[in-house]
Amino acid sequence: MPSPTYLSAHDHAKISAAVAQAELQSAGEIVTILADRSDGYTDIQLAWSAAASLLALCALVIAPDFYLGLYDHVLADWGHEWTPRAIISLAAAVAALKFGAVFLLQLWQPLKFWLVPPPVKTARVHDRAIRAFRIGAERRTTGRTGVLIYLSMREHRAEIVADEAIATKVDPQVWGDAMAAMLAHVREGRIAEGMCAAVEKVGAIVAPHFPRADDDMNELPDRLIEV
């Protein structure tokens, strides 16, 4: 399934211009990534399906007469003899049906992401941001001054990751202002404005520690990466 496009060409140009402007103030190199999602969460989908299957089996164990009677009533099979083989077959069929039904229900993406526990979303967005940073920004600048702004839409989460030179001088909590500025816009559907606000804040945070040199070169692309 292709990822949806959240921003127009005009929005992309606006963010690129914000990055270029922020980089005029410091030696920092800002990379922006907008992701539809940070993980497929297939393991969580399988876990919920397995849990539903197990609960169905537990219900069958707790109230066997009710469920066996319900089966006989639905099929009008009044003379049915419940042998151990028949009971096990029914249990297996119920478990399989429950598993399949819950798995298929989670193909509806809003439900699937609603069922993912918040700590799992946070951890996986963080992991994806770190991987993206290592690929696209870490140690790719002369002064180790790369900063990644990563926004993951399905999870409603964002990360800011800085290269080692910046990380040694800027406390991670300082990025909170940039995150707050971005999310205030994103919550109202103004994604481009949110990214631009974060870029501006990051530039202002980095500038006092890493002022731009006269011979500074643009080492990383200013364009937004949308995945």
From TrEMBL:
InterPro entries: TPM_dom
Stated name of the protein: TPM domain-containing protein
Keywords from the named record: Membrane, Transmembrane, Transmembrane helix
Native source organism of the sequence: Novosphingobium album
Domain of life: Bacteria
Keyword set includes Membrane: yes
Stretch forming the signal peptide: none
Span of domain TPM: 131-204
PANTHER family cross-referenced by the UniProt entry: BLL7265 PROTEIN (PTHR30373:SF8), UPF0603 PROTEIN YGCG (PTHR30373)
Parts of the chain that traverse the membrane: 46-67, 87-108
